[in-house]
Amino acid sequence: MGVVTTGCKPDLPAASAQSMIQAEYDHRPAASVNITIDEVGLRQGAPSYWTMTKLYPNKYWADFQLTPEGKKVVKLPAGGDTFQWRPEGPTDKKFTLMISTVATTHLKARDLQELQDEPGGKSVIYSESVGLEGVPDALANMAHNASNKLASKHTADFIIEGGAWKLKSIE
Q1: Model confidence at 4, in pLDDT bands (50, 70, 90)?
Q2: Could you write out the DSSP letters of every residue in 34-99?
Q3: Residue 8 pLDDT > 80, yes or no?
Q4: What percent of the chain is predicted at pLDDT more than 70?
């Protein structure tokens, strides 16, 4: 007696979907973590990662130089080892600047919602988050400040290929 195919899709457990998404992220080159430094982060990084080298007469502009420890863990977008803090005024709490970690890491797939049947496959909405493994605790704490976005929602689409589920795309 033969098996009749009814067009049913094999099961795709959430753990398998998450593993396929994470495998895609792990396959991509590791990257630095960009951290937006606000006034709180500026204070958190001093004096371990940077020190003030010049305070301007207006008392709210300053130049900072990376310390030897800072040079080991932080890269500045323009290169070099000095950055300028230039808020619009003494009460400007919105001024920020960007630094990058020397340590590189991979994105993480987390918090998958329920898989949805779609024509030709399945899809799932999940959180893509920045991995902070290998990043010193002080920098990881700065990354958790309000001025940083460490996670975003994405959708992964899956198709059946050769009788098995495959990751088709991430949007």
Answers
A1: very low
A2: EEEE-HHHHHHHTTTTEEEEEE-TTSS-EEEEE-HHHHHHEE-TT-SSEEEE--SSTT-----EEE
A3: no
A4: 95
Distance CA 143, CA 152 (A): 15
For residue 95, the number of C-alpha atoms closer than 13 Å in the C-beta half-sphere is 14
- pTM as predicted: 0.82
Starting at the edge strand found earlier in the chain, the sheet holding 74-75 runs 31-37, 97-105, 74-75
Scan for tokens 């919105």, then name that residue: 94
Q: Indicate whether 2 pLDDT > 70.
A: no
112 in Cβ contact with 124 (< 8 Å)? yes
Exposure on the CB side of residue 11, measured as CA atoms within 13 A: 3
Percent above pLDDT 90 for the chain? 88
Q: CA 62, CA 43: separation in Å to the nearest integer?
A: 13
H or E, element range at 153: strand 151-161
